[in-house]
Amino acid sequence: MRRKSIGLIIGLMLFALLGVIAMQYYFIHQSYNLKAQLFDEAVNAALNTVVLKAEKKEAIDFIEAQEAKNIRNKQLREKQQREIEEEWQTKAVVERMRRRQRQMEAEYRELESELKRQFPSATLIPNWFYETYMRDPKLKRLVKVSLKQSASGIYQNNSMEIYAERSVTNPKKAKDDSVRYVILDDYANEFAVVVLPPPRDRQLDEQIKRYEEQEKIRQATQFFDSYMSNAQQPATSVIENLANDFELAKQPLKKRINPSYIEAELKEELLHRKINLPFNMVITEGSDDSVLFQMASFNGNFDLKNSYATLLFPNSMIKSSGKLAINFPSRTSLLLGSMGVMLGSSAALLLVLIGCFTYTIFIILRQKKISEMKTDFINNMTHEFKTPVATIMIASESLKDPEIITDAKRVDKLASIIYDENVRLGNHIERVLNIAKIDKGDLKLDKQELNLNDLVAAVVDSMDLQLKKRDAQVDMQIEAANPILYGDEFHLSNVIFNLIDNAIKYSKDIPEITIRTKNVGNHLHIIVADKGIGMSRDQLSKIFDQFYRVSTGNLHDVKGFGLGLSYVHDIIKRMKGTVKVKSEKNKGTEFELILPTIKN
Fold first, then answer.
1. Which CATH number fits domain 364-440: 1.10.287.130, 3.30.1490.20, 3.40.190.10, 2.60.120.10?
2. Which residues share a beta bridge with 8?
3. β-strands 308-311, 323-327 pairing
4. Tens digits of per-residue pLDDT, 267-313?
């Protein structure tokens, strides 16, 4: 393909790509404008709904206030009647509680008198003393009782004193309200604890106190309500009520609006229309738009020009010049976010088109380069085939000369030349056919157990004439202790042959070649190194491509098709191995083949 044709194709593809990008931008822009229009309509509808709700709420509140005035006296009378009934009920309940308390006190006094009659020396002890010392086995031994006797006429009075020899740091609290006495058993000469029920019920005391406090509050409230009821003016007429209503409607806008209600209703209406964005709100009054209230979700001044506004109380009998305005600092983000699927799919489509465009250009340029390399390959192959064919033709014509036929040595030499050139021609053909089989996937390896050391030595021996022709110095380092591997003898021999052949070709003067085998773990390493012209980093990345040949400058003495290293790479890969290359310009190249061994 000519360069002009490639340029024309690239230009057309670029024009088509720019056209697609322009169309995508147009549709996205139109879609954005449509969504912005729908957004504006939804916001304006929400504003109108909110101001109508605020106006309706004001009317409802006004009506409810009037109704509240009419039923307030009725509720007050009903409340007073209920309070009177509750007062009598409360008094009855309190009286029952007090009788219960007096009964408990009487029962306690009777039990206490009986105890004192039977045990005159009975002594009262605090409940905390009982819980701390007398219920604890360890502390009970600290409790001591001392008896005191005194004569009173012909009678002898006995009394006891209960105390602890040592005080404790954390005395226990009383668990109940029972009354406890310590008595002395005269027969057993021991003291014991007698428990009497509490003289009063603490809960009943608390309830009585609570009822008394409620009664005081009720009486105070009743007095205040009565005072306010007496202070009210007589009922006005219907006309007077209407006049009062109009007076209320004339009150300032600041008293008529409820910013919290408007804000809450705005959020609800916007959410109902699927607008969940923070917004700034401002309420203004008058022709100069003086601000009455402002609510900002974002810092910064409120921009009235880029906001949505509507009149407050539009249907009011007394017109109001108040305005409600809101704006959305993140409006653009919401609109673009709602177009996320479209933007994402458009971006993905453009990336695919750009990728296809780039890949197509790469393929065209690559095919052009391959076409040039194939043309070079065909020319080189023709030259390579032409040389042995011409040599064979010249030798064949020489054999027709009667003088040469009579000379057996010359005939034998010409026959050897024909044979060698024929073998050379056959090797060229076989190399091309192998590459063709690899490309088609028809190449089948005949794998068997091989001795790599023997195989390398055999290949070097077969190249003895070629090495001697260049006076090559070969350093053989056969160090592999386990040289047995599983592979194809023919193709592996060709691989080693190609590497040694390249080492000979790309050496300037006398080739210095090092061939080494070694074991590393479960792998065999074959190293072929030379001290030739070497390669740059860019050349190293291309040496395994078909038809690629390392440039030798203006010299064309290095022959070949550019298929050898591609063949090496494919064969080693099929044998589950890898190829490593190290090279430095003008210092030489080292190829390292790594193949798996057969485990012993």
1. 1.10.287.130
2. none
3. antiparallel
4. 888 888 888 888 888 888 766 667 777 776 655 566 666 788 888 87
- How far apart CA 364 and CA 447 sit, in angstroms, is 39
- State which fold the 444-596 domain adopts: Heat Shock Protein 90 (3.30.565)
Mean pLDDT throughout 544-552?
Answer: 59
On whether the CB atoms of residues 147 and 158 are closer than 8 A, the answer is yes
Q: Give the C-alpha separation, 506 to 44, whole Å.
A: 83
Distance CA 563, CA 89 (A): 117
The Cα 468–Cα 464 span in angstroms is: 6
Residue 58 CA to residue 265 CA, distance in Å, equals: 14
Contact status, residue 182 vs residue 192, Cβ threshold 8 Å: yes
pLDDT per residue over 84-140, tens digit each? 666 667 777 888 888 888 888 888 888 888 888 888 778 888 888 888 888 888 888
SS3 state of residue 187 = coil
Query: What's the token pair of residue 106?
Result: 């009487």
Comparing C-alpha atoms, which of 365, 376, 367 is closest to residue 548? 376
Region for residue 168 given its phi and psi (left: phi exceeds 0; alpha: psi -120 to 50; beta: otherwise) = beta
Query: What residues contact 562, with CB distance under 8 A and at least 6 apart?
Result: 373, 377, 380, 546, 547, 548, 549
| Helix boundaries (H) for 400-526 | 402-405, 408-440, 452-462, 464-469, 489-505
Q: d(Cα 595, Cα 572) in Å, to the nearest integer?
A: 8
Query: What would the two tokens of residue 129 be?
Result: 């003393």
Hey, do 364-440 and 444-596 end up sharing a CATH topology, with the first three levels equal?
Answer: no
Q: Which of 465, 388, 462 is nearest to 425 (CA)?
A: 388
Domain spans of the chain, in order of start: 119-200, 364-440, 444-596
pLDDT digits (tens, 9 = 90+) for 388-439: 676 777 778 777 777 777 777 777 877 877 876 676 677 667 666 666 555 5
Query: What pLDDT is attached to residue 525?
Result: 92
Confidence at residue 274, expressed as pLDDT on a 0 to 100 scale: 83
- Across the beta sheet with 588-596, the strand order is 473-478, 512-520, 523-530, 588-596, 578-584
State whether the Cα torsion 59-61-64-68 is positive or negative: negative
User: What secondary structure letter does DSSP report for 168?
Assistant: -
Which structure tokens are listed for 179? 């009354």
Closest Cα to residue 58, out of 231, 351, 255, 204?
Answer: 255
pLDDT at 156 over 50: yes
DSSP, collapsed to helix, strand or coil, labels residue 305 as coil
pTM, whole model, 2 decimals? 0.38
